[in-house]
Structures are given as C-alpha cells and as structure tokens.
Batch of 2 targets.
Target 1
Amino acid sequence: MMNKTEKILILDFGSQTTALIGRRIREFGVYTEIIAGDAPLTEAVLTGVKGVILSGSPESAYGEGIAPDKRIYECGLPLFGICYGLQRMTTDLGGLVEPLPKMEYGGVEVEIKTGGQKAEHSQFLAAFDEAIPLNQILESGDAGGAEETRAYEPPLHAPLRFTAWMSHGDTLTRLASGFVQVGTSASGFPAVALHQEKPWVGVQFHPEVSHCERGSEILAAFVFSMCRCKREWTMEQYVEEARAELSARAGDNPVLLLISGGVDSTVVGALLLKSLPIEQVHLMYIDTGLMRKNETQCVKKALEKLGAKNLRVINAETEFLAALKGEEEPEAKRKIIGDLFITIQEREVASLGLPESYFLAQGTLYTDLIESGKGVGKKAHLIKSHHNVGSPLVDAKRKAGKIIEPLDRLYKDEARALGRLLGVDEDVVARHPFPGPGLAVRILGEVTKEKCDILREADAIFIDELKRRRAPDGTGSLYDEVWQAFAVLLPVRSVGVAGDSRKYGWTLALRAIVSSDGMTADVYRFPMKDLLEIAGMITNSVKEIGRVTYDISSKPPATIEWE
C-alpha cells in the first residue's frame, strides 16, 4: 500500500502470524511491506528494502510448501528466517529438513551459545541477553544505525537461556553450507542458526507472538543491528498516505460502505469522510436483527457526528431471520449472512441510483483475511470464514476490482489508533470487537428472534456491568482491562429452581479475554466476587436463562468466538 524509501520486506508463506511480524516492527517505527512468499523479487520490489524476513507456514519445506524467488539469496540483503522461513532457507541452500519424532509446541526453553561471531551477528545474539533492554536496541534506530558496530561481549555466565514460543513438526537435520547452530531447544534440536559470512540468521520459533520471551528484542536486533533501519514510520504517515490512495483509487466514483456498527467499519467511514467529498461517500447500515441492544441508534448518532450526509438505515431483521431458519451449522450461517448482506446491499444500491462504477468499501482487518485463508501469499489455512471476505458475492466484487479495504493490513489496536487520529469518539474506538455475522455466531444452533432477544438482554447486562465496575488496581473499569467480552447462548436447557417452582432455562456462557492483537488470547482472570454478582444479575433479570458458565479457554487451541 505504502511506498516508503526504507522498509523491511516480509515474505508471506501462509503463517497465521505473518502480519503480526509486521505489526511488531511498525511499533518500532519502521515501515514493513508484506508480499507473497513466491513473488518475483524485481528491482522495483526491492527498492528501499533494508532486510527481508521469511515467515512461517502451515506447510513443510520438503513437501508442497512454496519457495521464494532465488534472487533473495543473491540480493545481498540481511535475511531472517522464522520457523518455516529458516527451514526454507536450509532446504534451498543444500541443507536437510525432516519431520520431528514429536512436535515442538508452546513454551520451550532455548539455550544460546554466544561468542566468536561477526559483529553484526553478535549484536543480533545480544537480543537474547536479558541484561539488554529493548530501549537500548531501539536507540540505534533513533541514531539511524551505528556506523560501526562493536561486537557484543557475552556475559561470563554464558550460555544464555530463555523460553521461546514454538509451533512446528519439522527440524533441521543438516544445516546448509556456511551455517552454524548457536541455539538449541530443550529437546536437543536446532533453535537458532546463522551464516558465518553472510548477514543471514534464522530461528525455529516465533518471536512475533507475545508469549515468546525476548521476542521484541530479537526482531528489533535484526531490524536495527543488522539492517541499520531508522525509526521514521508513524500512524500519522499512514493516515496521510491512505487518504491519498483512497482519493486516487476512487476518483469521482461513489463509494459505498456497509457499516456494521463496530470499530473497523466506523474507522473506515471516518477515513472515507476525511479523504473524499462528503457527497461522494454513501453509508449503508443494515439492521439484521442480529445486533446488540440499541445498536442502530448508537450507530446513527456516531456517523452523523462524523459528518455523514448520505446515510441509509435498512431494517432487514425479517429477511435475515427467515434465511437462517432451521440452519445450525456455523459456516453455513456465515455464508447465508454474507450472501444476504450483499444481496440486500445491491437491491438498496439500485434504489439509490448509483452508477455501476461505484466502489464497495469494507472494514476488513488482516486478521479477518488470515482466518479466512486469504493471507497475502494465499497459503494460509482456513480457520473460519468471515462474511466480508468469504462469500461468493464478495469474492465476485473483489475479482471485479470494486472493493476498497483500507484496513486490510492493520490489526485491531492499529485500527483503534487510526480512529483516534481521525477524531472518532473514544467510546466507539474503545468498543470491543463484534463479529460481522453478529449474534448469529453467538447463538449456537438455530437462530430465532426469541433467542436474539434473550441474548441481547443478557449481553447488555454483562457489558454494562463491566463498564460500571472498577478493575482490581483501581485504574479503570473491568471493560477497559478486557480486550473482548460477550455472552454466548448455548443450545442447552437445564433444570433449576425459581422460587418454589421448577425452572427449565437456557444456559449462557460468558467470555472475556485479554489480547494485544486477537491472534492469541488468554482468559481474563475475573475477580470472583464480580463474576458471581454479574451471573446472578443475569439469571435474576433474564427469566429465560437458568444457568451461567464462564469460558476459560485460551486461543489457541480455541478461537475467541464460539462459531
């Protein structure tokens, strides 16, 4: 999207966390660009590139996994292979990769042996030393990279040890010529390798995920100590260049945005309204009947405050509930909703009299594309389809080149930061994520109006109480501490007691997680007093619910949403 004079290039081989690598580096103030793992490395592509990262992949390097353009090994740039990326380098350069007898997954201790390396390699290995803070590594970026790098002197108590985050079933059984092993996992397999002469390094774990100790330091050491990057990229620049690109792409054509009411589509709406003449921007909000309590009123107020003039609110509850009648399978529900969204949109657009040249804008985030198996390299595995990236009608629009997705390389927290810069109200920007299919994927099994009404009331109580109650440290609300919270209506009834009568009510699950990007998530450790009181308020206020449970699953292995 952006044309920066200096950047880190990331080759995407289909990892679920490829864009997370880019996000971490952007946080350092360095621009990143992600391209397909097998894309031709032309002179234009490599212009301004200071280093290349080879991402992970769900494939095997010795199987059908894609390989990079061989010019990568001739371009003279620093290379950093992450998991599959290192295995790919090993295979391409004459080494051997074979299956592990037992998969290495999760937190695994790694031992690093330092000393005797070239200056740039020793500075990279310095990132594994807990005595060296991240700020110390970032300072070299403020200075534009040191002209001369003094070799890192390892501590007397070497080797270094830290806990890495692994997820692979293959290992390096023979290193490629010129490579040496400097890191070993607790299982005895290679974990870190580097080339003795060239600026090439690789790791058999994922430094980009938050669970990896020294992960940020390792990425920063590559970017600043090896690639000599400067800290020049900001979200303000992203806004400026995104606005310019939107104006150029849309021209004089109308742009229609389907507003869901969540953070993502609202931020896209603000960006469109700041980039194009207001009369050119058409906002359409489809009330599916699957929205949260008072959603429509809140959406209308927020958009009008942003200056929207062409705002159309459509009540389509009857159509969506009729289309979903009898359907219980999650993927089928998502497809039904996605197709109907576009069908209704096209019908309503026809009544607006817009020309065929109109563009459809969406608030698609990179996590939506990745989970739908549509990563940059097209090799990501399908986790679940999203209504705005997976339906046949949306695919047709995409192939026609009529879709604008200005957030498709951003994560949720970056979308929030963008919204703040654009003047979106904080209560909207800070709102927890809400799935495009709405309550349909939070009602397990068949979706009915009765179930939607029950879940709406229960969810509103849960969220309102999180906003009202103070966090344990007193610095904010429980809502602020949680990355995402919601209620799920289960297709299970259980026996209970209401007064002196026997009650047969629905079971409700509460979900609250903490995360930085949505790619990994941990359960929020609720103060028990608050959890018990909220559960009691729900069963006392929503008579159809007889039992409340709390979901304690992390991601992985679970996803954040239940469907």
Target 2
Amino acid sequence: MVQSKIVSAEGASALVRDGCVVAVTGGGGGLVEPDVIMAAIETRFLETGSPNKLTLVHALGLGDRARRGVNRFAHEGMVKRVIGGHWVWSPAMQRMAESNEIEAYVLPAGVITQLMREIGAGRPGLITHVGLGTFVDPRVEGGKMNERARENLIEVLEIDGQTLLRYKPFPVGAACIRGSFADSEGNLCLDEEGATLDAFALALAARNTGGKVLAQVRQEVACGALPARSIIVPGALVDAVVVAPSQPQSYHPVADPGLSGAVPPGSGVPSPPDPGPLDVRHVIARRASQELRRGDVLNYGFGIPDAIARLVASRGQVEDYCQTIEHGTYGGTLLDGALFGFARNPRAMIDSPSQFDFYSGGGLDIAFLGMGEVDAAGNVNVSKLQGTPVGPGGFIDIAQNARRVVFCGTFEAKGARLSVGGGRLGIDRHGDIRKVVRKVAQITFSGKEAIRTGQRVLYVTERAVFRLAPGGVVLEEVAPGIDLKADVLERMGFSPLMPQPPKTMNPAIFAGSDGESA
C-alpha cells in the first residue's frame, strides 16, 4: 500500500527549498488558487527566513491586491526573481519590481503554461512564433521589466527560413496546485473548480525535473472513490496533499455549481442581464460589437471587452457565437471584474495549455482586447503603464493569432469628462493622459507583425475608430458631436492617415436603445 500523502500545510511548505523555482497555478478572484499552501510558505519564511531567494513563476494574475495570491511572496528576501504573466493583482510585487528589489520578467501567459509542459516532457524549451516583435522578443526587451533582470530567458531561432523564439527551460523545484478532491495516494480531481488551468503541466514540470508537487484540496476521499476520468493529476506526480475544508471556490464565499460546469448548459438560464448605463464604456462596446459575425469563435479580454460580453448577453445573442477565454472555458455566461476567468454554465472546459494551443494555431476568428496605448505603427501597449509592470496575461498569445482583432479603450485617461446621449458624444473635459501616442512605452502587440501576417486590426474608442494599414494607422470614423481637429487630431501624438474624410459613427450608438441596430 502506498504511504498516505496527506500532510499539514506546514509539512507541505517544508518541502520547498531555498533558491528553487516555485510555480503556482491560479487566476483572478481565487480561481484554482492554492492559497493555504502559499500562506504556509509565507508564514515559514516570516518565522524562519526560509525558503528564500525563490524564483516565482505564475502564468495568470492571482491575488486580491492585498494579502492573497502572489502577495504571499512579496517580502524582501523571499523571492529574487519573478516570471509572471500578469501582475496587477499584487501591487506589492509591482512595487518590488519598480524599486529593483527583484529580477522582474514578464512572459505571455500561454507561453508560460506551455513552457511548463515542455519542461516536463524534457524538450528543449518552448519554440514558437508567439511574442515575435513584442517586448518579449530578445531583439526588443526580452521580457525584462527592470534593471535587475539581466539574464536572457529567450533566444531567436531560424528554422526552415522561419524566425521563431525559444523560451528556455529550467528545473522546477516546487509546483503548488489545487483541486477539489484527492485520495491518500494523491490522485487529484478538479470537478468543483472554476477551471483546470495548468495544474497538470506544473505538476509534470516539477515531477520530471526533481521537484516536489504540493496539492491543496477541499476534501479527502477514499482510494478508488474518484472516477478515473475525473483525475486531472495522477497521484504518481504528487508528493503532498493538504486538505483545506474551508477552501472556497472563489474569493466569494458562496459556491456556485454552475461555475464548475456541474449544471448542464441551459438549466436555469438567467434572464438576459441589463446592458448597463449608456456611458463611454457602453458606447465602445456597441461599436466593437458591430464587428461580430454569426458563428464567430471569439475571445473577450479583461477590461472594456467585458462590456461587449455583457451587451451580447443582454441581446440574447450568446448562442450566436462561440465565446472562449484563455482559462479553458467555452460558452456560458462570463463573469467580469475581479472574477474574470470564471464562466457560469460553460459548454466545455479544457486545460489552459491546450486552449493556448488552439489560440496559437489560429483558432480564433476574432478577439476583443483592451488597449492601454496605441501608436503610429499600430503597436499596442497593455503590459507596462506609467512605468509599472502590468503584464499581458494571455493578451499576446491571443492578439497575435486571432484572424481579426478589435482593441477597445478610451481615447484618453485620467480626468476626462464625457457625456453620451441624443445620438451625440459631448466632451466636457479632456483627459490628462494621452493614449494615442507617437510611440508606445512597450510593444505588447506589434503592428508590423500584424501587417506581415495579414491580420485585420481595428482600434475602437468612444470618439474615433482607427484601422491598421500597411502605411500606418488610418482614421476611419469619428463620433457625432465632436470637433475632428480639436477633439481628435490635436489630442493625438501623431497624424493618422486619412485617404478620405472619416465617416461619422452611427448616431444610434450614442442613443438610448441598446445600439443593436447601429
């Protein structure tokens, strides 16, 4: 009989060695977050000074902007390096990166999940086109976010005349993962979780490079009680299981069986949500939704694209498209804000590395993504704003590979006061921060690469719509009620192409109806 792998959180934390790589799974809002294990590692460090000088690896953003998630590791001396896909949920770690207390690296979320799989398989890292021309390309910045980040984690390869990137492998000393149930042999089931994410890939990487796999679950069950097909991580890969009876499904205390796919699609379908107030965010969503085609396989990113998903749902059109998110879900009702990554009553749920395989191979017809800055070359920045590491999450993996991309964002930021109604846009005060700039602070999306690969790219704001063309950025539409020169052209960091006078955006977008006919 295999010795029981059930241990205390303190026992699991003792398996993490000084100086090792710690890879953690999880997403925003507490999605599949092994917080009890991470809290035990934090407590051990604060009480003993060990484990220290860790390299923390996480694909998605996880945390509550205060104590949980990545915040558990944001202590002087605890980590020496962070390789993260998205940083916004841990302001403390962002500050450590800005002050050069750690070596800060940002890689695309999909790349990180797939790299874990490649490491576990013993292959020579991840070789892919994802990241070419962006800040992770070593010919640009190599994913380095501060002065202390000096090691080259990526190299350029030429294979059969094609330029590719190789993300280099490294041993993983500990993988912190989570499930719903486990038996004493360590067989792990995620049936009540809101996603599968990269649990298996992380476990594989740690197990096959000499590291330890630490799993957190809500409940221990008898050996043989779990159906074989429900096992996501076999016990052969797991070293320690921590049972946390109070483990929540998310940061919200009430569990929802619909978030784990336990409720059949169509059961108890809620009434269509209210599309929200007629404001700038709603205007952008209305205009962006005009790019949808029935049957599209699509992705909604974090931020303003949330409003597009809500608008589509309010119109009762969810079934007209196949919506996906990088966490691995298809269909369902997407949650937004801090719970972005959860979907209620999804049609299908797969693991994140496989979802990113689908994306990187060109499976998306269209993607709606946020936009921090856009420049004269059509480059977009969402990964480093005002000098702060933000990270792209799955943005690069998605934006670079969707056939059509619609970037959504306000024309300006901070202090702008605008009014919407009566078929017009009113500008009472311009914003203090320009977002349409001469040159972005960091290239998260490469306009040059998009032209090379033939993508159709739009940039939708509340007052203007732009299109990427071989010669640059074309101004195609302006909102009714604004002054083209004073409110658009003089508020930009470059002169857009205008082969013909821009059209006026449909006034119905700025009127009281839901804008569907616009």
